[in-house]
Amino acid sequence: MTAQKIAIVGLGKIAKDQHLPSISRHDGFDLAAIASRSASGLDVPTYEDLETLLKSEADITAIALCVPPQVRYDLARLALEHKKDVLLEKPPGATLAEVHDLIRLADENGCVLYATWHSRHAMGVAGAKAWLAGRTPTSGRITWREDVKHWHPGQKWIWEAGGVGVFDPGINALSILTEIMPVDLHITAAELTFPENCDTPIAADIDFQGPKGFAMKADFDWRQTGKQTWEIEVETTDGTILLRDGGATVLIDGKEVSSDEALASEYDGIYAHFADLLASRTSDVDLSPLVHVADAFMLGKRVTTEAFYDEQ
């Protein structure tokens, strides 16, 4: 196998914690360059911007965009216009329309476009999807609560318009939900809680409906301290399944079941899938989690709470 020369654009926390280690563990990729204002200390060519990188590193074939969603569209367009394959961190864009435009552009230029959802690669997700297949869900709940000061310290972009706020982690739950459910769901109501000094919500309560009376509630909150809660529970006519720890642990009717998957990281799954897409020259851009986020903003009742400050 000839390794794909890949470049990372945006060397922030997620790139350092997840993308760099997973790229280094996959034989199909060779980290060949980085475009970032904070890329010192790495033994690869570094550039301040993607345009300079593309002019200087003609043999790079793939670009992993790890920048905030508000600025990702223009960079993705630039990469695709240079006929580079593109991997998009989640969420794939600030709007649905811009991602649809990237899909069109990728197709026109014969490029692979991959919108990643790392939580779908959690160890228990594939088994949960298989268990739910053929069963009839009757109700469900999502509880996705974490401490934003721990996971996103000092990241002001998440509180600015387009940063999606609590939906940054909440979309992980939605990516699992849309992967495992055997029926389609839609949002019927939402309540979004905005700090008085922020453009994006810090909490959200959402109601879903599906066929045959199915109903589900989701509770997203970025103010939880101590133990974090990432759970999805689905009741069916033939038992109940509970995913804990962001999909890493699965219980069926209260009994924990094992998984055959053994990834060191969910991002190892992302890069394994990206390698397969590159080999088959196939794009993968599932927008269903982002559709739910957009619908929550469209239907959401706005509630204002006290100002949020990132100081520890």
UniProtKB/TrEMBL annotation:
SUPFAM superfamilies: NAD(P)-binding Rossmann-fold domains (SSF51735). This is Gfo/Idh/MocA family oxidoreductase. One of its GO terms (molecular function) is nucleotide binding. Pfam families: GFO_IDH_MocA. It comes from Roseibium limicola. Residues 5-114 form the Gfo/Idh/MocA-like oxidoreductase N-terminal domain.
